[in-house]
Amino acid sequence: MAKKTYDLLFKLLLIGDSGVGKTCILFRFSDNHFTTTFISTIGIDFKIKTVELRGKKIKLQIWDTAGQERFHTITTSYYRGAMGIMLVYDITNEKTFDDIVKWLRNIDEHANEDVEKMILGNKCDMEEKRVVSKERGEAIAREHGIRFMETSAKANINIDRAFSELAEAILDKTSGREADADHARIAVERRPSRAPPTRACCT
Ligand SMILES: Nc1nc2c(ncn2[C@@H]2O[C@H](COP(=O)(O)OP(=O)(O)OP(=O)(O)O)[C@@H](O)[C@H]2O)c(=O)[nH]1
Ligand SMILES: [Mg+2]
C-alpha cells in the first residue's frame, strides 16, 4: 500500500467579495506567484500545499470560492466540510469591508459551528488608496472573537503567516480532540469488565 505522505489533512476555505484578492492570496501561498491580471473565479477551485507544524506534516487542501453572488449556491455548499475559513476584504474598498458581516452570517448558516475563522484585510501594499484603517479591521475581528491580519498577495506580506496561524489553531483543536479520545479510551480500558451491579440496600 502507498505510504501516506502527511499526518493530518486540513480543509480550508477562502471567502469574500469578488476582487478582494482571494485567488492571488492562494497563488502566492501555493506557487509564490502574483499577477495583476484579474480573472474572476468561476464557481470553486482548490490548491494543495503541505506544511510542517510542530513536527507534523499537514496537508492543506485550500478551496478558493468565487465572490460573485451568482455562485452563492455552489460556494456555500463547500462551507460544511471546512475546518478553517479565511474571510477576505480589500483595505482600499469600503464595501468589501462592510460585507464581512454578510460573510460571517453565511458562515453561521452553512459552516460547522467549531470552524476556525480568520479575517484578512488584503492589499495592504496600497497604503495611498487605503480607506479601511487597520484599527477598524482589528475592531470587527475582536467583536466577533476572530483572528485578524493585514496581508498583501502582491508584496508577499503575512501570506505564509496567515495560513500557518489558521492551521495551528486547527491543530490545537485537533490535538485537544486526540487527547480527549485517548483519555476516553484509557477510561474504558480501566473499567472492570464485569463490575458487580450496584444495588440499593433494602432490609
Ligand atoms: N495591489 C494589490 N493588488 C492585489 C492584491 N491581491 C490581489 N490583487 C489584485 O486584485 C485583483 C483581484 O484579485 P483576485 O485574487 O482575482 O480576486 P478574487 O477575490 O479571487 O475575486 P473572485 O474570484 O471574483 O472572487 C487582481 O487584479 C489582482 O492583481 C494585493 O495584495 N495587492
Ligand atoms: Mg478568485
TrEMBL record:
Protein name, as recorded: Ras-related protein Rab-10
Give the family from UniProt: Belongs to the small GTPase superfamily. Rab family.
What cellular component GO annotations does this protein have? cytoplasm; endomembrane system
Q: Provide the topology term for how it sits in the membrane.
A: Lipid-anchor
Q: Read off the InterPro entries from this record.
A: P-loop_NTPase (IPR027417), Small_GTP-bd (IPR005225), Small_GTPase (IPR001806), Small_GTPase_Rab (IPR050305)
Q: Which GO terms describe its molecular function?
A: GTP binding; GTPase activity
- In which domain of life is the source organism classified? Eukaryota
- Keyword terms of this UniProt record: GTP-binding, Lipoprotein, Membrane, Nucleotide-binding, Prenylation
Asked whether the keyword Cell division is assigned, the reply is no
Q: What is the lineage of its organism?
A: Eukaryota, Metazoa, Ecdysozoa, Arthropoda, Hexapoda
